[in-house]
Amino acid sequence: MAIYHCSVKVIGRSAGRSAVACAAYRSGEKLHSEETDRTFDYTNKGGVVYSEIALCANAPERFLDRETLWNSVQTVENKSDSRLAREFEVALPLECSKEEWIKIGREYAAYMTEQGMIADWAIHDPVNKDTGIRQNPHIHMMCTTRPIKENGEWGEKEKKGYKLDKKGQKIPVIDPETGKQKIGARGRKMWQREKIDATGWDNKSKVLEWRAKWSEVVNKYLEPEQKIDHRSYKNQGLDRIPTIHEGFVARKIDKELQAENPMQHSELVQKNIQIREQNRLIQMMNEIRLRITEKARALYDRIRELTGNGKLDRSVGAELAIAGAGKQGIEGIKRDIERRERETPSILERARTRITALKEKSNSKDISNTDIREETQEVRHNAGSEQLAGLIKRRTARSAGLSNGASGSDRSAAAEAGKSALDKLRARARAAESAREEREAKQLRSAIEGSREIKPKRSRGQDLSL
Question: Residue 31 in contact with residue 70, Cβ under 8 Å?
Fold first, then answer.
């Protein structure tokens, strides 16, 4: 699997390092340092499969010679804290061939030379001596830190400029004795000055740009499912813990420890093992949460088809939307059912009041079929509240079973049984709807004409006594 790794480091004199020695090691060559009169021979180093130097504009052809280039750098960078080179260490995808690696390296080096750097890069492909398997193919790219002037000479990395405040105004030099701005020898006002990066290569935004460019170049040679991303997990919106870069030394220590005890790992490797296990559990929990949410949404849609009540749908839907959270979501649905059961008597009482008013209206002969049909639908809707509460109870219990019950074939069988029961109930509801409407309308009309109360047939789960 392709991985993203791009580290940017500085090779500096303050750490006692030599640009010539670093270049010799990375290229696997024998180079002589004129400054120290030492020869660094890494011709026996294994794993170096390719190396090349890419020149920027204005750079002289003599810098194509590695020894000449880095001896020149050490001559111009002569301060004790000088930065000799900027190194990019980037991981190569195992999915690509050696020829593709070279194309990737050349394209990235060309990107650096366009910015005014000279890029000296080499491909390392170390192979495990015991197994013969490639372990960690990567590129070391050393870039110069100074620009090249038009005459082919080294330019300046920094320049002096006025120090500015947050508003972009020059900051005066204050005389501590007078508290006023200092005046120079020629009567000129004195302003604070500072060193300014002349290349634009020494800021964080540039590093982010270099990292993004590496992923862009590599992804041209990878399939869509293999592509890498330079962004952190947080910036990608992924719920995942990043692992720690191990490196050659940590893996070597781990190998030595495992030779003594196969169950023992180095501290860094052990941390990464624990992080990978945590990521596996996080992914599993996210998948379970997604499945529960999908099942709750499907159950809500089925209940919505049966009820046809928009207001009730929104309330039940809100509870089912959180049913995937487990016990708390199920308890919320139960509370809603209990509330609806408490409201049912008052709904039926209002229905009785409406029928009484309709009777009084019938005495004055001022009644129409439309009135009868509207009141019949209202009675049927209110009277069905208890039946609907029972339906929600049964579906909620089934939802809890799907969320907390067994997995695999048992869960699939339960889901299939639930679907079959819902289909049967839906068919029964459709078949009874028209017959019930006609029957209750007939009873209501008879009640009005004969001045007697309606006594509809009692159904299971209903209380239709008015």
Answer: yes
Token pair recorded at residue 324: 């995937």
Residue with tokens 């093992």: 273
The amino acid present at 306, given as its one-letter code, is L
Cα–Cα distance for residue pair 389/309, rounded to 1 Å:
13
Give 213's pLDDT tier (boundaries 50, 70, 90): very high
Q: What 8-state DSSP symbol labels residue 13? A: G
Q: In 3D, which of 142, 139, 136, 134 has the Cα closest to residue 104?
A: 139
DSSP 63: G
Element (DSSP H or E) covering residue 429:
helix 409-450
Distance between CA atoms of residues 296 and 319, nearest Å: 9
> What share of the chain has pLDDT > 70, as a percent?
64
Say whether 174 sits in a helix, a strand or coil. strand
455, 442 Cβ separation under 8 angstroms: no
Alpha helix (H) residue ranges in 322-408: 327-363, 369-383, 385-404
Q: Following DSSP, what letter does each residue of 118-138 receive, concatenated? A: -EEEEEE--B-TTT--B---E
Determine the 3-state secondary structure of 94 from DSSP: coil
Query: Whole-angstrom distance between the N-terminal and C-terminal Cα of the chain?
Result: 72
CB 35 within 8 A of CB 75: yes
Quote the pLDDT of residue 345: 65
For residue 224, the tally of other CB atoms under 10 A from its CB is 6
Report d(CA 28, CA 50) in Å as an integer.
9
In angstroms, the CA 221 to CA 122 distance is: 19
> Residue 324: what pLDDT?
45
| Cβ count near 81 (within 10 Å) | 9
Q: Is the pTM of this model over 0.85?
A: no
- DSSP letter at 175 equals P
The predicted pLDDT at position 322 comes to: 46
Q: Is 116 left (phi over 0), alpha (psi -120 to 50) or beta?
A: left
Is pLDDT at 45 greater than 70 in this prediction? yes
Tell me how far apart the alpha carbons of residues 452 and 362 are, in angstroms, rounded to a whole number: 12
The count of C-alpha atoms lying within 13 angstroms of the C-alpha of 291, restricted to the half-sphere facing its C-beta, is 14
Could you tell me which residues come within 8 angstroms of residue 335 by beta carbon, excluding any fewer than 6 positions away? none
Q: How far apart are CA 426 and CA 240, in angstroms?
A: 44
**409 CB neighbour count, 10 Å cutoff:** 8
Count CB atoms within 10 A of the CB of residue 230.
20
Give the C-alpha distances (Å, rounded to integers) separating 241 from 175, 227, 233, 267, 274: 53, 19, 7, 17, 10
What is the rounded distance in angstroms from the CA atom of residue 455 to the CA atom of residue 352? 12
Report helix, strand or coil for 201: coil
